[in-house]
Amino acid sequence: MSSPSHAVLLATSLLLSLLSLIPVSCLDKSPLPSPEGMLPEQKIRLGSTPPSCYNRCNQCNPCTAVQLPTLPFQPNPVRPSRVKEAHQMDDPSSYSNQYSNYKPLGWKCRCGDHLYNP
Predict the structure, then answer these.
(1) Among 10, 40, 106, 118, which is disulfide-ready with 51 (CB 3.0 to 4.6 Å)?
(2) Domain span at 61
(3) Structural domain includes residue 117
(4) How far, in Å, CA of 118 to CA of 99, rounded?
(5) Is the pTM of this model over 0.85?
(6) 67 pairs with which residues across the strands?
(7) Would you give the DSSP letter of residue 69?
(8) Taking the CB of residue 83, how many other CB atoms lie within 10 A of it?
């Protein structure tokens, strides 16, 4: 119990135990980036990135990524009725008429006049 190696082992384990209690955020003292410095980074991340169209156009070249408006999907077209007209404001699906000119964009691969899924 009184050997020097036992004392070194005890001191090392005590030191490691104390270090594990210090939060990592206290050790990192690097300055935070200024908001001006973050603007180019944010601009890079806005929007979606074009997909890779490599080998997507059935050996047609050049195969390039293009953004096109996507077609809305309606599995069952809604038929107007008098009951639905009375409760149109209560139905959340009727709110889509408010944004009928909204056309989300999606990516496709284009070669010539042909479009391919990425």
Answers:
(1) 118
(2) 49-118
(3) yes
(4) 28
(5) no
(6) 107
(7) E
(8) 8
